[in-house]
UniProtKB/TrEMBL annotation:
<protein>
    <recommendedName>
        <fullName>Molybdopterin synthase sulfur carrier subunit</fullName>
    </recommendedName>
</protein>
<dbReference type="GO" id="GO:1990133">
    <property type="term" value="C:molybdopterin adenylyltransferase complex"/>
</dbReference>
<dbReference type="InterPro" id="IPR044672">
    <property type="entry name" value="MOCS2A"/>
</dbReference>
<dbReference type="GO" id="GO:0000166">
    <property type="term" value="F:nucleotide binding"/>
</dbReference>
<dbReference type="InterPro" id="IPR016155">
    <property type="entry name" value="Mopterin_synth/thiamin_S_b"/>
</dbReference>
<dbReference type="Pfam" id="PF02597">
    <property type="entry name" value="ThiS"/>
</dbReference>
<dbReference type="InterPro" id="IPR003749">
    <property type="entry name" value="ThiS/MoaD-like"/>
</dbReference>
<comment type="similarity">
    <text>Belongs to the MoaD family.</text>
</comment>
<keyword id="KW-0547">Nucleotide-binding</keyword>
<dbReference type="GO" id="GO:0006777">
    <property type="term" value="P:Mo-molybdopterin cofactor biosynthetic process"/>
</dbReference>
<dbReference type="InterPro" id="IPR012675">
    <property type="entry name" value="Beta-grasp_dom_sf"/>
</dbReference>
């Protein structure tokens, strides 16, 4: 299983703080994102555009390969000032 956590605007738009999805061999951040975006319009809106991702609390690119038991987080870019 992959644990997915959503933060900030991604959490608000998807209306989901966390969920688990079955692990599939060859799964990447991009394929997970694609799978979630096809759940419904809320997920599609939450994951479109610039969304950062982390795997096991480390920032990763969309081509990052996932392993069973990983924790993936999606969140918008953070700005400061």
């Amino acid at each position: 299983m992959i644990t997915v956590k959503c933060f900030a605007l991604v959490r608000e738009l998807s209306q989901c703080a966390s969920l688990t999805v079955p692990f599939e061999p060859g799964m990447t951040i991009a394929s997970l994102q694609h799978q979630l975006a096809h759940r419904d319009a809320n997920w599609q809106l939450a994951l479109e555009g610039k969304v950062l991702s982390a795997c096991n609390q480390t920032l990763v690119d969309s081509d990052c390969a996932l392993c069973d038991g990983d924790e993936v987080a999606f969140f918008p870019p953070v700005t400061g000032g």
